[in-house]
Amino acid sequence: MTKLIIDFFDEIKYELSVVEKELMSAVRCPDPLLTEAATHLVSAGGKRLRPIFCLLGGKFYNFNLDRLVSLAVALELIHMATLVHDDVVDSSMTRRGIPTIKARWGNKISAHLGDYLLGKSLVLIAQYKDPLIPKVLADTSVKMCEGEIVQIATSFNTNQALRDYFYRINRKTALLISASCKLGAVACGAPEQLHQALHRFGHHIGMAFQITDDILDMTAEQVKLGKPIGGDLRQGIITLPAIYALHNSPQRERLRKIATNRNKSDADVDEAIELITECGGVEYAAGVAKKYITKAKQELAELPDVPVKKTMQTIADFVGIRSF
Amino acid sequence: MTKLIIDFFDEIKYELSVVEKELMSAVRCPDPLLTEAATHLVSAGGKRLRPIFCLLGGKFYNFNLDRLVSLAVALELIHMATLVHDDVVDSSMTRRGIPTIKARWGNKISAHLGDYLLGKSLVLIAQYKDPLIPKVLADTSVKMCEGEIVQIATSFNTNQALRDYFYRINRKTALLISASCKLGAVACGAPEQLHQALHRFGHHIGMAFQITDDILDMTAEQVKLGKPIGGDLRQGIITLPAIYALHNSPQRERLRKIATNRNKSDADVDEAIELITECGGVEYAAGVAKKYITKAKQELAELPDVPVKKTMQTIADFVGIRSF
Fold first, then answer.
1. DSSP secondary structure letter of residue A100
2. pLDDT of the residue at A56
3. Dist CA A186 CA A168 (whole Å)
């Protein structure tokens, strides 16, 4: 998956390889268990979207790799930390057969490993003199937690409005992507007008990205997704296609019944996805994602004409059509 | 408990009340669940040792409450976050009847609540211009995680040397207390010589504090401790009195057998504590704590003669004799 994405980014191929190396060395420490768990995480790959956006953001001004590497690594570490903490589960919520950090090392290690990654990101961020960088990242991490908690608090709640969903995914995903685009430019000394435009671009892309992710959780092939389909429904996370269907499906009462059931069978999940798709829930969500992509591209149009602008457009398109 | 400690500190009574108010308001947020859980934590009290040391550290130079409050609150939030993440357990490790955040809200909430507290501390720290403050706290949080992970990795391991124990408690406890003393002075603009002396004082006090804590886990009355005696042994955490006994008790093989048993009965725990006490393990640990207190007081002697110095001495003595 990593490889595929990197292919889009010939312009920052070298820079990404430097980030990757630094990421690997950032998580090493005197403790072998911690190093092993963290290295396992880094090696497992990922799209490295946040470092990519950070580097691309920097390309809009006086690009300086030395100034960007630590920030790019820190952004990925923050992202990884949230993934690890998201793996912390309660016994009743354990999903069988998914090899998460938690499954391999347990909840307690996950809690501390996430903190460790976060701590390493703080060490990197502390190098920056511009106060905007720690400030934006601190605010972002608080809001990301708010998003995670709201997601737990509203799980299995089928009476959600669209704005509840947008509030959640903004915090869960869009804010850090938006911060990545913006801070890449900030680290290179870009003026406020430029980094604010990148911030808006990142917001729209981040929203589209999460909506697409939520669609894929219902429509992807299991092999490509790397996890069972319908994971969100199983965990009680009500995403955009489901919210649409809960308001518009002629069989919304049946859907509500399945969605609120904490012990769904595989057949239940399949049925729910069918009901959601039938009434146009997936199509609706794809339309919303498309609108965000259009907005992102409009934002891009206002940005300076640098070579990397085309790459940003390609990402915008890719976010809308990706199938994994 | 909080009240008792505050009585020692008439000199910073007002300042502590300001910190307490700020702490309470720092954890409020738009989300009611998050605010409730965090407020519950703050209201549950605690000794507020880190804010106390931060304020006292500031008293050695140009004391300025406005410059100290956010730092003092941030230090307590970092401490609270580690406690919350320490509450994350694996089902096999769940201890019955102990009302932790985990017991009330579950592992998943604990993971995100801890991150939230940490995030709030970052927002506060981002206000400081002196780069030493974020740097020291970032380094400290990484090392604290290393300590926590080593504690997990070495649990139920009865072949530990003294230096393994000191490595662990330095990271788990002493570093943040030491940072509190030091950064209080840093925030008030103190010169390096002064904050390095406070750093050393904090290190010795922190070590003594954790050793005493580990002794109390074996000797305190359950009511005063607020949790069952022998909790460390139950969780497989081998502390100083146990390490001494595992090397010196004539019945060390029996002790080893109990200590490595993951399903100890209450009678097993009582027997182990008796074996440890009988051979002088508790006395030995108390002697080590006393040595650290002596070192702390020597460090104090070198510090400028400010009124608060006497309070620091009182704390040093108190850490050695406290019974809760």
1. -
2. 95
3. 26
Distance from CA of B311 to the nearest CA of A (A): 33
Residues 102-121, chain A, touching B (beta carbon < 8 A): 106-116, 118-120
State both tokens at A51: 């470092």
**Contact between chains at B112 and A30 (C-beta distance less than 8 A):** no
Q: Is the pLDDT of residue B251 over 90?
A: yes
- Residue range B253-258: average pLDDT? 97
Q: Measure the CA–CA gap between B258 and B233, rounded to whole angstroms.
A: 9
A-B Cβ pairs (cutoff 8 Å, strict): 155
- The arrangement of secondary structure in A2-321, i.e. its CATH architecture, is Orthogonal Bundle (1.10)
Q: Which of A33, A135, A152 is the closest to B149 by Cβ?
A: A33
Using a CB–CB cutoff of 8 Å, tell me whether A96 touches chain B: no
Q: In chain A, which residues have their Cβ closer than 8 Å to the Cβ of B100? A: none
Q: Measure the CA–CA gap between B278 and B87, rounded to whole angstroms.
A: 32
Q: Residue A191, exposed/middle/buried by CB under 10 A (0-12, 13-18, 19+)? A: exposed
Tell me the CA distances in angstroms from A240 to A267, A324, B146, one per residue in order: 21, 18, 40
Residue A270 has phi, psi (to 5 degrees) of -60, -45
Check CB contact under 8 Å for B149 and A106: no
**ipTM (interface predicted TM):** 0.86
Q: At what angle do helices A13-26 and A49-58 cross, to 10 degrees?
A: 130
Minimum-distance CB partner of B145 among A112, A131, A141: A112
- Whole-angstrom distance, CA of residue A201 vs CA of residue A240: 21
Distance, in Å, from the CA atom of A287 to the CA atom of A138, rounded to the nearest integer, reads 33
Tell me the mean pLDDT in the region B180-190. Answer: 97
Instruction: Compare CB distances from A142 to B120, B131, B144 and report the shortest one's residue.
Output: B120
Taking the whole predicted model, whether its pTM rises above 0.80 is answered as yes
Asked whether the beta carbons of B133 and B125 are under 8 A apart, the reply is yes
Q: How far is CA B135 from the centre of its chain?
A: 20
CA distance A36 to A51: 22
* Angstroms from B186 CA to nearest CA on chain A: 16
Enter the tokens of residue A62.
């006086």
What's at A129, amino acid-wise?
A: K
In which residue ranges of chain A is pLDDT below 70? 1-8, 90-105, 222-227, 323-324
Q: How far apart are CA A268 and CA B52, in angstroms?
A: 56
At B105, is the pLDDT very low, low, confident or very high (cuts 50, 70, 90)? low
Any idea where the domains of chain A sit in the sequence?
Answer: 2-321
Q: Which of B108, B115, B135 sits opposite A141 (nearest CB)?
A: B115
- pLDDT band for B90, please (50, 70, 90 cuts): low
